[in-house]
Amino acid sequence: MSIVEVKVPDIGDFESVSVIELMVKVGDTIKVDQSLITVESDKASMEIPSSHAGVIKELKVKLGDKVKEGVVLAMVESSEASASAPSAAPAAPAPSAPAPVAASSNAAATSAPAAASSLELLVPDIGDFKDVAVIEVMVKVGDSVKAEQSLITVESDKASMEIPSSHAGVIESLRVKVGDKVNRGDLLGMIKGVAQASAPVSAGAPAPSAVASAPAPSTAPVSQASLPVQPSSASAHQPAQSASSLAKVPHASPSIRKLAREFGIPLERVTGTGPKGRIGVEDLHTYSKSVMSAQANASHAGSSSQGADSGAALGLLPWPKVDFAKFGEVERKALGRIKKISGANLHRNWVMIPHVTNHDDADITELEAFRVQTNKENEKAGVKVTMLAFLIKACVSALKAFPEFNSSLDGEELVYKKYFHIGFAADTPNGLMVPVIKDADQKGILQISKEMGELAKKAREGKLSPAEMTGACFTISSLGGIGGRYFTPIINAPEVAILGVCKSQTEPVWDGKQFVPRLMLPLSLSWDHRVIDGAMAARFNAHLAAILADFRRVLL
Ligand code: CAO
Predict the structure, then answer these.
(1) Which atom of ligand 1 lies closest to the CA of 449?
(2) Cis peptide leading into residue 90 (ω within 30°)
(3) Which of 108, 112, 106, 222 minimizes the C-alpha distance to 163?
(4) Choosing from 251, 300, 529, 543, which is the catalytic residue?
(5) Which of 222, 243, 244, 321 is deepest in the core (most CB within 10 A)?
(6) What is the pLDDT of residue 97?
(7) What value does the CA radius of gyration of the chain take, rounded to a whole number of Å?
(8) Which residue minimizes the CA distance to atom 26 of ligand 1?
(9) What is d(CA 504, CA 520) in angstroms, rounded to the nearest whole number?
(10) Which atom of ligand 1 is nearest to the CA of 426?
(11) Residue whose CA is closest, atom 38 of ligand 1?
(12) For residue 391, what are the contacts with CB-CB under 8 A and spacing of at least 6?
């Protein structure tokens, strides 16, 4: 065991770069090549690996320090039998910057600038790196660029770097897009620029000095940094990058980017709290915590405001926080238990089911007369028949005719139910509840009416059992006793449709010869577009309307 100094290796032309991240702490056991710190210049960020394995005894740098080649980063109790000299080249590629201008440029130093011509933009020597990913395209076709202006950003697992243009000119075409892998010599695009035709880089032209921190083994410094620009007549034009892909990528080190990718965190949504808005590991933690808690709120709580907080999970703006008391007197009341539960369910169903609502009218003139007559005849039995009982029977008939409405989605399968349990929304002092009439196909109107009365009473008294509220295949939400014309009922998952009913009204209806007064019932059918299509929904409503117009059809 011996204490060795771990120093900044050859980082090329960088005179002094800022330490923006400490990736280890005193006491950590580290391996050879393990990244110790991240440094950053205005063009690149890179991780500096350790040349030794062992235990960190002392860190010699802190955040914000400027470091350059040879600066001692840490004292490490080396576990190697004989530690090599601290300045020995690390096994991992050490960041190394390319030399600014190749000596070959002298040949063209005195040549006069040629007329504007199409030139190839190639990836320069980026050291040992193979297949580095393009993570940002910073220019688009038609852009005027200056010499040294960054064209793309590439990233390996240890460094990210910007590749500059060696010439001023107008971008004619781009051959790379975000996600492409590039290597030295790959064609990035064509530029119409003023260039020396005889040499890759003119010494007279601004040298793309200290451009990308093309990491290379420190024992093999990169020899040339410039983008060799060659005259070319062939220019395979590429469509321009979309505006969105040109958006500036967030400020973060390669390791942070890698971590974000592993966890599926979109870096552009993370707020960086480091210098110049830089994203650090704490910022990733903060972001993922906020998303997780918003999701938990949405699924477990369900109040409208809590559900709205999940906007973060959906990539939406946070819910506005308003101090209402500023505008007048207010009173706060906690949401009741039923409202919380039904709110969470309604929210999920509204967000997850692609709803469509078809509106229609049913002529219930004769049916209403029959209902009134039935009630007169059954007055003594103490059972009141409302339109809802007929609607339940009519819906059973429509569900039989259109079995998709009596199904549920289960992954990529539809579960068709052979039973007919119909839920009905009941307005209670505590909030919305949905009791269920079981086997409605096997029951008559009077029995359905009786059960509805009992279930509605239990609902209002908060005495419904879970069994009385589960198992529905289809739900009816009737506002007929209250009013309104049409509305959009929310599907009660895992059902795939719901019928909303409003107050019937006598209307003038054209019978082919004249307008006649008819009692019309407004129907609003919401359906899940993943399971049902519009034509089927229209047929379902037409079937319902036909039955309600002549209830004998139920027997067919
Ligand atoms: N058109 C005209 N009148 C209607 C009607 C309609 N479509 N439906 C019912 N009515 C009449 C009834 O005949 C009754 O009239 P009378 O008092 O003259 O006899 C009156 O309206 C009240 O009916 P009701 O509401 O007591 O009975 P119902 O069977 O129609 O409904 C129930 C029962 C429990 C569903 C209902 O009371 C209820 O809670 N409805 C609200 C449902 C709801 O909130 N839906 C919205 C969910 S989404 O938030």
Answers:
(1) 29
(2) no
(3) 222
(4) 529
(5) 222
(6) 37
(7) 36
(8) 481
(9) 5
(10) 39
(11) 426
(12) 476, 478, 499, 501, 548
Q: Reply yes or no on whether 359 is catalytic.
A: no
Token code pair at residue 288: 């993922």
> Exposure string (b/e) for 351-387, b if CB count within 10 Å is 16 or more?
eebebbbbebbbbbbebbeebeebeeeeeeeebebeb
Q: 556 C-alpha to center of ligand 1: Å?
A: 28
Ligand 1-lining residues (CB < 6 angstroms): 386-388, 424-427, 432, 456, 477-481, 489, 501, 503-504, 521
DSSP state of 447: H
32 and 202 Cβ atoms separated by less than 8 Å: no
**Residue 481, phi-psi category: left (phi > 0), alpha (psi -120 to 50), beta (remainder):** alpha
Average pLDDT over residues 1-9: 88
Atom number in ligand 1 closest to CA 459: 34
Tell me the pLDDT tens digit for each residue of 189-202: 999 976 443 333 32
Mean pLDDT of 495-524: 98
Q: How far is the CA of 391 from the centre of ligand 1 (A)?
A: 12
Query: What pTM does this model have?
Result: 0.53
Q: What is the mean pLDDT of residues 56-62?
A: 93
Q: How far is CA 110 from CA 118, 148, 251, in A?
A: 21, 21, 40
List, for residues 308-330, the tens digit of each pLDDT value: 455 666 788 888 999 999 999 99
Tokens at 299, concatenated? 């699924």
